[in-house]
Amino acid sequence: MNLRQTLALLCVAASLLLAPGCAKKSNEPVVGVYLALTGKQADFGITTRQGVELAAEEINSRQGINGKKLKFVFEDDRGDPAEARTAVSKLIDQEGAVAILGDVASKNSIAAGQVCQQREIPMISPSSTNPRVTQDRPYVFRVCFIDPFQGYVMAKFAADNLKVHTAAVLWDNSQDYSVGLAKVFLQEFPKMGGKIVAQVNYQSDDQDFSSQLTKIRAANPDVIYVPGYYSEVALIARKARELGIKVPLLGGDGWTSPTLVQRSGGALYGSYMSDHYSAESEKPAVKQFVEAFKAKFHTEPNSLAALGYDATWILADAMKRAGDFKPKDIRDQIAATRDYPGVTGNITINSQRNAVKSAVVLKIGKDRPEYFTTIDPPK
Ligand code: PHE
After folding, report:
1. What is the three-class DSSP state of 276?
2. Domain 148-275 has CATH 3.40.50.2300
3. Nearest residue CA, atom 6 of ligand 1?
4. I want to staple 44 with a disulfide (CB 3.0 to 4.6 A). Which of 104, 160, 200, 203 is the partner?
5. Which CATH number describes the domain made up of 30-145+282-357?
6. In the prediction, which pLDDT does 8 show?
């Protein structure tokens, strides 16, 4: 081994030993963002990133935080929980991130949140709604409501607004999000006088839903609750219509995608979903956000973009109040967030590190989901 090789080896050894401490020192505090930017959940990551980017641009064009510009580093986890863990480890160890934003699908956030908790780096999920994401993890937060509320919203909407009596439930058994929402609906709908007439499930990679839908057709429900993600839901809707099932489908925020209507080819027309926000709101803060977003991306911001935007601003606001960029101080200030005026509603982080907010119900129109009504958390 010559001297050059020995030196190179020593450097590698030193950087391994010093791992977290010797992360790339950038002058700018680093915010690490992990999202599904490719793969089956790519619509989630891409729209969320746009919301983060708009907020980042606003923050840095207004002198940054405490006199420093923030550096945002994005990692693609391809919608896979193991990749989400790797992405977050890389952002912390190699990029020196002082805070983390991500992911959308709860399963990925549950996996990566464990890493953030172990390293004591604060994480904010913009949109993961499964209760487990923040449970027993003092460093993990979210700026959205949780599924016990979201499931209640659809059960209440079915019983009170649609006044239907029977429902079938079809969920994705491989996603914590979908399993959790189905469970809540199965509990809540009967409490409101409804009857569950069929319960069937599938896995994220399934392509053929005919056996599940044939069972559902035989039970003849008034509505079908399908709390899954947009790619499977589009296939399910097409198959349901092919099998002659005409009743509306009901879903949750997992339907949110700019490609939902086109993928489903009209099969979801007249169906309903719960969501976090509507771009049609007349509130001045929303109008301003929608305009700025359209100017930058030439498309309307959906709930993912809005939550990505809110999560980024909540983090920046906490950093400002912390007065420094120490992960522990940032964590404490995120926890202290009260009545932050977000575009998705007023955000107060409660003692469970979740936000309590209203939900909207959207009706699927010809080109996109349209605002239908708002449902508030029970008092
Ligand atoms: N709430 C979903 C989950 O936890 C993710 C999601 C949020 C998807 C908002 C679309 C819009 O998995």
Report:
1. coil
2. yes
3. 254
4. 104
5. 3.40.50.2300
6. 53
| Alpha-carbon span 281 to 301, nearest angstrom | 12
The answer to whether the 30-145+282-357 and 148-275 domains have the same CATH topology is yes
Q: What are the extents of the domains in the chain?
A: 30-145+282-357, 148-275
Say if residues 302 and 49 touch (Cβ distance below 8 Å).
no
Question: Distance between terminal CA atoms of the chain?
Answer: 72
Average pLDDT of the chain is 94
Distances in Å between the Cα of 117 and the Cα atoms of 25, 98, 99, 353, 379 are: 22, 13, 11, 13, 32
- For 137, half-sphere exposure in the C-beta direction (CA atoms, 13 angstrom radius) is 27
Cα–Cα distance measured from residue 347 to residue 336, given in angstroms and rounded to the nearest whole number: 11
Phi-psi region of 39 (alpha: psi -120 to 50; beta: other; left: phi over 0): left
Weakly modelled stretches of the chain, pLDDT under 50: 11-12, 15-22
Query: Rounded to an integer, what distance in angstroms lies between the CA atom of residue 56 and that of residue 77?
Result: 21
d(CA 142, CA 102): 9
CA of 367 to the centre of ligand 1 (A): 21
Q: For 16-29, how does the pLDDT look when each residue is reduced to its tens digit (9 = 90+)? A: 444 444 456 668 99
| pTM of this structure | 0.93
H-run or E-run covering 251? strand 249-251
- 60-83 confidence digits (pLDDT tens): 999 899 999 999 999 999 999 999
pLDDT single digits (tens) 207-236:
999 999 999 999 999 999 999 999 999 999
Measured CA distances, 230 to 43, 329, 352 (Å)? 9, 38, 28
Q: Count CB atoms within 10 A of the CB of residue 131.
A: 17
- Best residue among 177, 183, 231 to mutate for probing ligand 1, ranked by most atoms within 8 Å of CB: 177
Pocket of ligand 1 (CB under 6 A): 44, 104-106, 127-130, 177, 253-254, 256, 303-304
Closest atom of ligand 1 to 229 CA is 8
